[in-house]
UniProtKB/TrEMBL annotation:
Keywords annotated in UniProt: Methyltransferase, Transferase
GO biological-process terms attached to the record: methylation
Gene3D superfamilies: Vaccinia Virus protein VP39
Name under which the protein is recorded: Methyltransferase type 11 domain-containing protein
PANTHER family associated with the record: S-ADENOSYL-L-METHIONINE-DEPENDENT METHYLTRANSFERASES SUPERFAMILY PROTEIN, SAM-DEPENDENT METHYLTRANSFERASE SUPERFAMILY PROTEIN
InterPro entries: Lys/N-term_MeTrsfase_sf, Methyltransf_11, SAM-dependent_MTases_sf
Domain Methyltransferase type: 9-72
Alphabetized GO MF terms: methyltransferase activity
């Protein structure tokens, strides 16, 4: 979640007002709570995403899986790296 926090911060700057961030690591959650304590729009909860029963079905308008985004972004960066390598 650490780099993912930047997404949440950017979403607040874009006008989103209520963002729940979760991570199974209490250390990560405490770090992010401290770092973003001046962002009341960001909430942090230590929990396992495999059991989201804590939330009712209509709690969220949208859920972002940062791990999937990371995979896509790594792919994009990798393609650039391969292209540059081939040019050299
Ligand atoms: C490698 S980190 C990357 C985080 C994110 N991609 C980012 O850039 O901030 C993966 C995160 O997933 C969390 N994680 C692993 N299993 C989890 C689970 N079952 N529920 C919630 N978070 C989990 C870890 O604690 C860790 O903070």
């Amino acid at each position: 979640m650490l780099q993912g926090a930047v997404i949440s911060e950017d979403m607040v700057k874009d006008g989103y007002e209520d963002i729940m961030n979760i991570d199974i690591s209490s250390v990560a959650i405490e770090l992010m709570r401290t770092k973003y304590e001046h962002f009341p729009q960001l909430k942090y909860l230590q929990m396992d995403f495999r059991d989201m029963s804590f939330f009712s079905d209509d709690t969220f308008d949208c859920i972002i899986d940062k791990g999937t985004l990371d995979s896509l972004m790594v792919w994009k960066v990798s393609c650039c790296f391969i292209a540059i390598t081939l040019l050299i």
